[in-house]
Design brief:
Layout lengths: L1 E4 L4 E3 L14 H16 L4 E7 L3 H9 L3 E12 L2 E11 H7 L21
Parallel strand pairs: 2-3
Antiparallel strand pairs: 1-2, 3-5, 4-5
Length: about 120
Amino acid sequence: LSDIDRVNQRCAWAYYLGETTARGMGLAKTLELNVCEYVFETLGLTKLWCEVLSYNDRVVALHEKFGSKVEGVLRQHICKNGEFHDVVRMGLLRSDWLALRGQWNYTRIDIESPPVLATVA
C-alpha cells in the first residue's frame, strides 16, 4: 500500500508474483481479498486504486474479477526498454467491496498496521 490519503480516504497498491512457479496457486486471490478487507474494513478507506500496464490483460482481468473497474487509460505513460506503454488506471470502492465480499471463500491472513510515526510540532 502506498499514497495513503486519509483526507480523500484512498490509497494505491501494487504487488508482483515474480516467481513463475508461484503462479496459479491462488496466492493472488488470497492477497487481493485480504488487502481489500484490510483497506476497507481495518483502515476504513473508501477507495483502493492501482495502475496496470495495458498489455497485462491477465492482471486487469484479475482485478476486475474481484470488483475493480477500469477508470481510465494513461496513454504512453511508461517507457520500458525504450518503448512507451499505456497504463490502465483501476479502482475499487468500499461500496463495491461490501456488496461483493461474501461471494468468495479465502484464507484470511493477518496484516499488521505500520507503526504511527510521531510528528514534531
